[in-house]
Amino acid sequence: MSSSLIDDARFRPFHRKMFALTAGGQFLDGYLLSIVGVVVLGMSQDLGMSASQEGLIGASALVGLFVGGLVFGRVTDRIGRQLLFTLHFVVIAAASVASMFVSDPTLMVVLRFVIGIALGADYAIGSALLSEWLPTAQRGRVMGMLIMAWFVGATAAYLVGYTLISTVDSGAWRWALGSAAVPAVVFIIARIGTPESPRWLLSRGRVEEARAVLTRVYGTDATTEAVESLVADERGHGLGFTEVFRGAYLKRTAFVGLFWLLQIVPLFAIYTFGPTILSAFGMSGGGDSIIGSALISVLFLIGCVPALRLIDTWGRRPLIVWSFALMVIPLAVLGLMPAAPAAVVLACFCAYALFSGGPSILEFIYPTELFPTEVRATAVGVGTAVSRIGAAIGTYLLPVGLDRIGVGPTMLIMAVITLLGFAVCLTMAPETRGRRLAEASSAGTPGPAPADRPARVTTR
């Protein structure tokens, strides 16, 4: 097989910059979706909200993620990645500032929904753009690291929220929700001038524009032969939105949507209402439960580290299958022992966080590897949409479940959902380790990557 300019390139400072810019979106996603859980109790008191309204505020951003992923994934495949890579952050900054002045729960639901749309768009735009620039040897590890930015953002939200609650006499929740505008503005400025994906340009027949972008990044390595090799990989096939629901891609779409949904329902519920859940297990409310949630958040981050080491050696399929199997255990223990000591409760949540590393990093790897350039952002958007509508339902029902059936049965339901995720992965998960992007995303079903065929790295 001939050398590929992007797939076989060495990892450059440009790739690190693209990762940092894309990770900014995940940082904001983790921050915005977690900060509301930290301040929901104070906000509820000030605005006189019911448990149902608390659930709606927690779920509205996830419903927005459904809409944003579904709509803007397809828009990104039609008009390009670069144009939308910055604009949606303006919406996030504006809505975050507006949240500081809300006096009605309904308006808060609307603003959270708008923020969710922008975040859903970023999932599709950022992951597609980054994956299309990465060399094969680093693609799995770097794409997987995106979720670590999510957990860093979530941890930052808990720490900022705790600090504001501890230092601000009243209205701390307003400052906490508005604080997201600061990183949003930083990334608006940083993302200006980001180059378009050459793979997308080539899939649209815009060869000269792709050549100019490749020359800008790779310099003299962007030879005519190297560009022509990419042209052959990314030749357009006229694929549209419905392609992800037909033929070989239908099974991939079902797999991505289902595993993402069945992992995210418990994870987002825990993140959104972490302090509330810990309080239900008997831990003191306020600062102690927030610090406990921050600890769990850090362990979600730590759990990604061994998964990142295994993703390109052990492979995608065994990692996700065994991760789901192990995630069931701590949730089942929590469900069967709702009166367990605080140390046992925290240990179970920490174990769940550590075991969730595999599926967490694969949220960004599988959708971008299993679909071709023409529908890659569309597929990511569909996966985001399916997972987030399920997460929205779970997040909405969690406070109601805690109130009506108790914490034990609620955790058992989470364990059953995770067990279903294990069944889906066991029967449907493919292997894409060591395959070039065009090869992994072709219509043929990916099989196991040969052990003696590592991704090749050149030293240009």
Task: Please describe the topology of this protein.
Layout: H1 13-47, H2 51-79, H3 84-99, H4 105-131, H5 136-167, H6 172-178, H7 181-191, H8 198-203, H9 207-218, H10 224-233, H11 247-272, H12 274-280, H13 287-310, H14 316-336, H15 342-355, H16 357-369, H17 376-404, H18 407-428, H19 437-440
Helix pairs in contact: 1-2, 1-4, 1-5, 1-6, 1-7, 2-4, 2-17, 3-4, 3-7, 4-17, 5-6, 5-13, 5-16, 11-16, 11-17, 11-18, 12-13, 13-15, 13-16, 14-15, 14-16, 14-18, 16-17
Fill in the keyword field for this structure.
460 residues, mainly alpha, Growth Hormone, Chain: A, 19 helices, transmembrane helix
Structure description:
The chain is an all-alpha fold. The chain has one domain: MFS general substrate transporter like domains (Growth Hormone, Chain: A, Up-down Bundle), CATH 1.20.1250.20. Helix content is 75%, strand content 0%. The chain has helices at 13-47, 51-79, 84-99, 105-131, 136-167, 172-178, 181-191, 198-203, 207-218, 224-233, 247-272, 274-280, 287-310, 316-336, 342-355, 357-369, 376-404, 407-428, 437-440. α1 (13-47) runs antiparallel to α4 and α2 packs parallel to α4. The two termini are 18 Å apart. Keywords: Membrane, Transmembrane, Transmembrane helix, Transport. It holds the Pfam family Sugar_tr. Residues 18-433 form the Major facilitator superfamily (MFS) profile domain.
Q: Which architecture would the CATH scheme give at its second level?
A: Up-down Bundle
Q: What is the radius of gyration computed over CA atoms, rounded to a whole number of angstroms?
A: 22 Å
Q: Please identify the oligomeric state.
A: single chain
* CATH homologous superfamily title: MFS general substrate transporter like domains
Tell me the strand percentage band. Answer: under 5%
Distance between the termini: 18 Å
The averaged pLDDT comes out at: 83
**How much helix, percentage-wise, in residues?**
over 70%
CATH level 1 class label: Mainly Alpha
Membrane topology: Multi-pass membrane protein
Organism: Streptomyces lomondensis
Transmembrane segments: 20-43, 55-72, 84-103, 109-130, 142-160, 172-194, 255-278, 290-311, 318-337, 343-366, 378-398, 410-429
Main location: membrane
